[in-house]
Amino acid sequence: LAVAPQESTLLADRVMLEYELGDFDVGEAYLERLLETIPQAAARPGNQYAVPAQVIPWVARITGLLDRLDVAEAAAQTVLASPLANPLYVLFARTGLGLLAVLRGDVAAAAEQYVALAPRRGLMLWVTSSDHLLGLLAHTKGGLDQAAEHFQDTLAFCCRAGYRPELAWSLCDYADLLLAPATTAAGARHASPLRDGDRQKAMSLLDQALAISKELGMRPLTDRVLSLRERAEAQPARGPAHPDGLTQREVEVLRLVAIGQSNREIAEALFISLSTAANHVANILNKTNSANRTEAATYASRHELV
Q1: Spacing of C-alpha 217 from chain mean position
Q2: 25 Cβ neighbours under 8 A, 6+ residues apart
Q3: Is 296 helix (H, G, I), strand (E, B) or coil?
Q4: What is the pLDDT of residue 231?
Q5: Is the CB of residue 111 less than 8 Å from the CB of residue 136?
Q6: Cβ(165)–Cβ(175) below 8 Å
Q7: Residues 68-108 pLDDT 10s
Q8: Strand partners, 182
Q9: How is residue 259 annotated by DSSP?
Q10: Rounded to the nearest 5°, which phi and psi values hold at 242?
Q11: What whole-number distance in Å separates Cα of residue 11 and Cα of residue 28?
Q12: Contacts for 225 with CB less than 8 Å, ≥ 6 apart
């Protein structure tokens, strides 16, 4: 940036870095510089339009501030309106419009961008991956099973490629899907009891997202993950309660205790700290009136928890 202070792709990278780390004031300064690179008119619109079209909505996802979405939409539409636009920039513009549809909860726009982007699976689209975005779009238009399939593909894609920030966001958004409120026939949304398997899977996804976001210093995402965890714990569970007041997380730990895993192995398996694992084990021994881990394993077998 010292050499090329108005290079939009470099500015966009710096904007993303600052906002992902939670340095919003610094990010805002770089975002203002990025917006200044958008020309008033262009015979052949390039990355000066296509890059802000993606970056502005992603910043809005991080901050929750939606005041610049019209700027992003105008930039994307400028690209799509030009018969001379490079296909790569058209793809970037579609990505921006897809993110806008998700942020606005616009079902019709989400369906339109889903159709346009569906053939582009397995790609990284600058700020997000195509499968991740397709999952968000499917979720927005109500295709929950379809969205889950896309998120599963996203996790595999990110793990293969080593895209850890994108992996952390995808884990969080997949968990959000599993915790989504049900929709009635009249269109009203309400918090319904979670299936035990959905809660367990969502908590596992959130634990993984939390571990990555903390390690990388992604403070806004860390806050989002912690908020989702609170929501998951607050929603009522569907199905019979576990014996002796054991929570779902304690049952997960108990199952690992029953197969002989140490506290450290439990912590690694569940993506929790060693002290948290030790606290869970202590609570389990107390609730089940077990003197040691062997008795706890016997209790788990007797109550068919393993």
Answers
A1: 16
A2: none
A3: helix
A4: 84
A5: no
A6: no
A7: 999 999 999 999 999 988 999 999 999 999 999 999 999 99
A8: 190
A9: T
A10: -75, 155
A11: 11
A12: 172, 175, 206, 209, 210, 213
The three-point CA angle 12-107-226 to 5° equals 60
Q: Nearest-CA neighbor of 202 among 178, 226, 238?
A: 178
Nearest to 253 by CA among 220, 236, 234, 276: 276
Task: Give per-residue pLDDT as tens, 180-238.
Answer: 864 333 333 444 445 557 888 899 999 999 999 999 999 999 999 999 998 888 776 55
Could you give the C-alpha distances from 86 to 12, 40, 44, 76, in angstroms and in order?
A: 19, 19, 8, 13
Return all residues near 233 (Cβ < 8 A) that are at least 6 apart.
none
CA distance 96 to 17: 18
Beta strands in 194-283 (DSSP E): none
Which regions of the chain does DSSP assign to beta strands (E)? 182-183, 189-190
CA geometry: angle 46, 10, 20, nearest 5 deg: 115
d(CA 211, CA 221): 11
* Amino acid at the residue 141: K
Q: How far is CA 177 from CA 91, 122, 172, 174, 232, in A?
A: 25, 20, 9, 5, 11
Return the closest-CA partner of residue 203 out of 233, 177, 180, 182: 233
Are 265 and 256 in contact, with CB atoms under 8 Å apart? yes
The CA-CA-CA angle for residues 60, 65, 66, to 5°, reads 75
User: Taking a C-beta distance cutoff of 8 angstroms, is the pair 130, 169 a contact?
Assistant: no
pTM: 0.74
